């Protein structure tokens, strides 16, 4: 029989146990060991059956057990201590509150997915886990963040395997009433709703659910509202599901509805209004349009409103390839922003212009969400140093005339929330060394560049910890593998071999991530015989644990999964190589600590950051990776290995994969495995243990999300808040008018002539330390000298006279405008480096409210006729 209606029946806790409800509903428990241990002690078996979810646990505990706990004085003392600790955590001063004045009163952080805990499955991969770690670290630091996302009733998907190893997807229905969520309600108790207008007079309504992530509220919009039509109710059905219009509606709800949800939350709770809006990837880009609409309702014109919105906006791109960006047909977007639909009063052509690919190589009939995100934000960043470089090259068309290195996209390298990802055993070892309080601060707040106290931990203690974690992973793998084979149709009698899968004394390698082709799940299979030799080596065997999900629509990714599964099913190697289906946070928290080596072999430079190796490193796992993402930035031979890349321009895909796979096998056979099995007296691998120490001491403080969030605050949020405050209505109108005037006048701006006068001979060579006086004649047309900056740009030159490692410095105007309308600028150029050296001059727009000279994408350079001196000056 099937129920005709479903309810969530919540337990009635005895009065002395009421604080358990608050502890269960604040997701700080997901990274606070003492709170988890408290819940586990309520009912150890029930805790295991509930998958470590406090709400599910409390819903299953018997009334007799609750009554007994209410009378247990020791338990009540522990409960009171945990409740007091949470209260102090949520209300006390933290890092942010001790910073100088001027930081934003609040920051709104928008993301399409958030990976907070397995008990709230609203994530698919790295983007969501990063967003969850961002919220948790903001909470630890006291940053007044408001998270904004969507509530997907089916989450992402659960993965299983068929008997043949083909990925199968399952979409269990999630009931918000059974999740650690509460409805945002108006003062009269009715649920808060946000509404979007759709074409044809339809509406899209959404409830706002709230999760509490420590100090940080997370607002999740849910379109499963009775007043919606069937199509509208399904807008938030699945993460990254549906067709183009479905995705567009999701992103409109996230961006436009998300701003409206933030306004409602601040109105109802009294939370300060955000001064900064942070868009985590382009999916939420429409939030800028909603903010423009708000200002237009207050009387601002579009251009002035755009300047206000840009000033307080931060845009983070995670995508190193154009194919990873959401793009919609312009006609589809126009239909949803035309008269009678969303954003009334805003010209749809102005909307389309923000996302149009109107640059060389672009497709003007497409609306690009990342392009809109960049045009609506004065500050933008990639997520590693290398990814920042890749992003500047990818989006250089938006800033014509500038070299890619000058494109105004910086980088903040991702980090991971250590209290979430560090195994309790690792934390306890550190706490014994420096005390629990200092260990918590070191993991959550960071600040110290090195964790030198790791050096004081004995070799025996480090090795005992590593073996304990490996042993726990072996048990976890066997349990999950047995469950997977049962799902694949195997009977108990067939599964005796699983008891011999993996060995807690064998070198263990982990590889787990999403399965797009560029991550190369099956690179390890290029030479199967050689891999088999490594797995079965008589003295130095290797074992590998693999996990990962392919997107439901990606059949090529599913074929990669099947290829790996079929190899892992081979009786010769199945005790040494396993594939675990349904990769998620719960599995990851066991996998990272239990591995000795974390493998990552993407196509360089297509890994924007790749934080899984960071989580592994925090547990003393060594990285073996292609120099991509964060590893390109921080790799040192002292604590890991770099897989050489074969990325020459003439290299075909198969040849490149063969070469890089061979390099991987060589590293494993000749360097990684020998070091692991090289045992001194007492059976300890001293050199391996030293690499573990160096990983923890040197990488540990760098990979923290606490470091990452502090960088966002200091380098992006604080300047954005200052810019936001500087742009009142009058200043915004003036800036918009100035930009319009400069753009209109720019075609007449020119560098007419450049002269160089040296204090020595200047016939192609010059002495180090000598000075060249530059005299530059320019035409500014209708612009004033105050509207521009004339710069000299000097640096090394290559054989084609292209500048690199260049530095720019301003030249000064001399005297009034000449009879011919030209102006003269002068300045000294000091020849401060040896070797091929050159310079050029240029004119940029200049205004006190610009964040960067390249912001407008306008520059005037010398023509070949007006350049005067040759570019290259040979130093000696």
TrEMBL record:
- Domain DUF3417 positions: 13-120
Output the Gene3D superfamilies linked to this UniProt entry.
Glycogen Phosphorylase B
Q: Does the keyword NAD apply?
A: no
Q: What is its EC number?
A: 2.4.1.1
Q: Name one Pfam family in it.
A: DUF3417
Keywords (A to Z) from UniProt: Allosteric enzyme, Carbohydrate metabolism, Glycosyltransferase, Pyridoxal phosphate, Transferase
Reaction(s) the record says it catalyses: [(1->4)-alpha-D-glucosyl](n) + phosphate = [(1->4)-alpha-D-glucosyl](n-1) + alpha-D-glucose 1-phosphate
Q: Where are the transmembrane segments?
A: none
Q: Name the InterPro entries on file.
A: Agluc_phsphrylas, Glyco_trans_35, Glycogen/Maltodextrin_Phosph, Glycogen_phosphorylase_DUF3417, Pyridoxal_P_attach_site
Q: Which domain of life is it from?
A: Bacteria
- What cofactor does this protein call for? pyridoxal 5'-phosphate
Keyword Transport recorded: no
Q: What is the role of this chain?
A: Phosphorylase is an important allosteric enzyme in carbohydrate metabolism. Enzymes from different sources differ in their regulatory mechanisms and in their natural substrates. However, all known phosphorylases share catalytic and structural properties.
Q: Which PANTHER family match?
A: GLYCOGEN PHOSPHORYLASE
Q: Which family does it belong to?
A: Belongs to the glycogen phosphorylase family.
Name of this chain's protein: glycogen phosphorylase
Instruction: Give the gene that encodes this protein.
Output: glgP
């Amino acid at each position: 029989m099937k129920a005709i209606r479903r309810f969530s029946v919540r337990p009635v806790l005895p009065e002395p146990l009421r604080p358990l409800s608050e502890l269960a509903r604040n997701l700080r428990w997901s990274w606070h060991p003492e709170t988890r241990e408290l819940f586990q002690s309520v009912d150890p078996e029930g805790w295991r059956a509930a998958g470590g979810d406090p709400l599910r646990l409390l819903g299953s505990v018997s009334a007799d057990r609750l009554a007994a706990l209410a009378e247990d004085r020791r338990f009540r003392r522990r409960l009171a201590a945990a409740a007091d600790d949470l209260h102090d955590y949520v209300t006390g001063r933290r890092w942010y509150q001790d910073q100088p004045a001027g930081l934003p009163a609040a920051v709104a952080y928008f993301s399409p997915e958030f990976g907070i805990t397995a008990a709230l499955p609203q994530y698919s991969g790295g983007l969501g886990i990063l967003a969850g770690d961002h919220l948790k670290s903001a909470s630890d630091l006291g940053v007044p963040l408001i998270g904004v996302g969507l509530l997907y009733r089916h989450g992402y998907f659960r993965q299983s395997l068929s008997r043949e190893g083909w990925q199968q997807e399952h979409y269990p229905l999630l009931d918000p009433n059974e999740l650690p969520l509460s409805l945002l309600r108006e003062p009269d108790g009715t649920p808060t709703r946000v509404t979007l207008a759709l074409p044809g007079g339809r509406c899209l309504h959404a409830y706002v659910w709230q999760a509490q992530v420590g100090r940080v509220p997370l607002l999740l919009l849910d379109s499963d509202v009775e007043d919606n039509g069937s199509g509208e109710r399904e807008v938030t059905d699945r993460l990254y599901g549906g067709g183009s219009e479905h995705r567009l509606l999701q992103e409109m709800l996230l961006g436009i509805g998300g701003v409206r949800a933030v306004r409602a939350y601040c109105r109802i709770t009294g939370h300060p209004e955000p001064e900064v809006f942070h868009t985590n990837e382009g999916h939420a880009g429409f939030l800028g349009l909603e903010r423009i609409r708000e200002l237009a309702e207050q009387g601002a014109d579009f251009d002035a409103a755009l300047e206000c919105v840009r000033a307080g906006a931060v845009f983070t791109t995670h995508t190193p390839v154009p194919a990873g960006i959401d793009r919609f047909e312009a006609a589809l977007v126009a239909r949803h922003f035309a008269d009678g639909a969303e954003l009334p009063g805003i010209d749809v052509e102005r909307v389309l212009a923000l996302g149009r690919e109107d640059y060389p190589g672009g497709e003007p009939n497409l609306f690009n969400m990342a392009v809109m995100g960049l045009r609506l934000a004065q500050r933008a960043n990639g997520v590693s140093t290398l990814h920042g470089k890749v992003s500047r090259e990818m989006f250089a068309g938006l800033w014509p005339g500038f070299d890619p290195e000058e494109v105004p996209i910086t980088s903040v390298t991702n980090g991971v929330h250590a209290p979430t990802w560090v195994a309790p055993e690792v934390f306890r070892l550190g706490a014994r060394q420096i005390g629990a309080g200092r260990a918590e601060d070191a993991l959550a707040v960071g600040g110290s560049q090195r964790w030198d106290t790791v050096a004081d931990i004995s070799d025996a203690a480090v090795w005992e910890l590593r073996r304990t974690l490996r042993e726990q992973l072996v048990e976890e793998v066997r349990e999950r593998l047995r469950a997977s084979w049962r799902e694949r149709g195997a009977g108990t009698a067939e599964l005796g071999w699983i008891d011999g899968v993996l060995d807690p004394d064998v070198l263990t390698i982990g590889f787990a991530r999403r399965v797009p082709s560029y991550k190369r799940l099956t690179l390890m299979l290029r030479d199967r015989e050689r891999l088999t030799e490594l797995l079965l080596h008589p003295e130095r065997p290797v074992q590998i644990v693999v996990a990962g999900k392919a997107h439901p629509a990606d059949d090529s990714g599913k074929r990669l999964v099947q290829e790996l599964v079929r190899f892992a099913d081979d009786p010769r190697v199945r005790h040494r190589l396993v594939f675990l289906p349904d990769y998620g946070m719960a599995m990851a928290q066991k996998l990272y600590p239990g591995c000795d080596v974390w493998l990552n072999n993407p196509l360089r430079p297509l890994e924007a950051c790749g934080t899984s190796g960071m989580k592994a490193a925090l547990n003393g796992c060594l990285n073996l990776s292609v120099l991509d993402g964060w590893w390109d930035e921080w790799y040192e031979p002292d604590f890991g290995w770099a897989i050489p890349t074969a990325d020459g321009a003439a290299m075909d895909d198969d040849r490149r994969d063969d070469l890089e796979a061979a390099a991987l096998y060589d590293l494993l056979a000749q360097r990684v495995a020998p070091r692991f099995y090289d045992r001194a007296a007492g059976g300890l691998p001293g050199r391996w243990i030293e690499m573990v120490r160096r990983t923890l001491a040197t990488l540990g403080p760098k990979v923290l999300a606490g470091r990452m969030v502090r960088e966002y605050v200091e380098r992006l949020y604080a300047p954005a808040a200052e810019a936001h405050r500087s742009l009142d209505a009058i200043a915004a109108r003036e800036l918009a008018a100035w930009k319009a005037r400069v753009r209109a006048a720019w075609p007449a701006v020119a560098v007419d002539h450049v002269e160089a006068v040296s204090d020595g001979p200047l016939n192609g060579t010059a002495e180090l330390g000598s000075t060249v006086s530059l005299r530059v004649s320019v035409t500014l047309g209708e612009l004033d000298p105050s509207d521009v900056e004339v710069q000299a740009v000097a640096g090394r030159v290559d054989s084609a006279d292209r500048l690199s490692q260049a530095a720019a410095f301003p030249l000064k105007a001399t005297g009034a405008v000449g009879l011919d309308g030209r102006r003269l600028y002068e300045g000294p150029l000091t020849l401060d480096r040896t070797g091929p050296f050159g310079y050029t001059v240029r004119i940029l727009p200049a205004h006190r409210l610009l964040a960067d000279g390249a912001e407008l994408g306008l520059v005037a350079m010398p023509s070949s006729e007006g350049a005067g001196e040759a570019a290259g000056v040979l130093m000696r």
